[in-house]
Structure prediction request, 97 residues.
Amino acid sequence: MDLTEPLSMGIYQLFEEHGIHLKVEKGNFIFHEGESAGDLFFIKNGSIQISKETENGKELTFRVCGKNNIIGESSLFGPTTFHSNTAKAIQLRNHNT
Prediction:
């Protein structure tokens, strides 16, 4: 799937039928760097900031994700995965996991 194209209906339907609907308020975190990772999140609306803390303690923003983006990390066949970055709501929205 070309990442510049809209999310396919099949993937969207999987999240709608099997995902858990969550509403995250602006300023709240979805996950933190270093936490155990096992979920993928589909953003229905709003914006999510993907960032990492530098050695100096400053926040470095890699990307701002929005509607129809998928974020998160998961290991299908290997050992437990840990988040390599942090995701924070910067605009009100809902997402599925």
